[in-house]
Amino acid sequence: MKTEQGSLRVIQAGPLSLLVDEGRLGYNQLGITQGGPMDREAFNKANQLLGNPQNTSAIEVTLGGLLVICEKPAQITLTGIDVFLSVNGKRKLAGKVLTLNKGDTVEVIQGDAGVRSYFAIKGGFDAPLQFGSATTVVREGLGGLKKNGEPIKSGDVLTFSAQASIKAAVSEPVELNMLEHPTKLRLIPGYQFEDFTKAAVNRFFGTEFSLSSNMDRMGVRLCGPPIESPYANMLSEGISFGSVQIPTDGQPIIMLNDRQTIGGYPKLGSIFSPDCDRLAQCRPGSKVRFEQISVFEAHNMLHLRQYTRKQSNS
Fold it and tell me: Which pTM value belongs to this model?
């Protein structure tokens, strides 16, 4: 089928809209963090619906507000929690492939729950690569349309490979994730876990923490009874995705996609990566609680998820 260049023109960008793909993996030794989608499952689901390769670029929309006009026919979808699309003023379901015509206006609207949604297009958006990825990391000034880490702005033009003749997609809406209250976060203990006292560990797993307003793509600070840190000072070391740091004030910090690559606080361990997807959809004030799992259990659950995903795609 003949293809040609298509484009979406951004009328308004919303609070924070970022071009993302799977991120920059393998560059921590250079001080470059991974970036990428905060809710990886929702991102993958969007590309799966459109038949895109897993690493195809999409737009991560924070708290809705993205409004675009389509300048060529295109197929799109939106995934997330409590989100929907408005096409020419008419509400459309998320989790379903939609066909846009030239001149259609599309708005992403976030409901009362959730934080981030993923606006994806058939074939993905065109963007230059840096360190093998187009993903936007504002803190590092990397990625995005201009390779400077800037979020999408009003007036930007997002290009894609448009099909000259496009058939209306036939797709039943997929079931989108919902949040549980409180949100359960499974922790895999790290090598410093044994340095914490039994009382500190029991308090950590026995406490229902609240998310503070001090949260972004770098990490989330929690509020609750202080967890005693085993030592005040330590040499800085590498920080893995989902690490749970305990600073001197005892309020845990969970490190996420845009975290710095080294830090000097002791760590209880790391959050099971799929649980970080749900954490990324929690708003300030939301409640979370922790449950301990082993590396063996985590590996088994990940293998089961991968198998289930392959079966659903076949």
Answer: 0.93
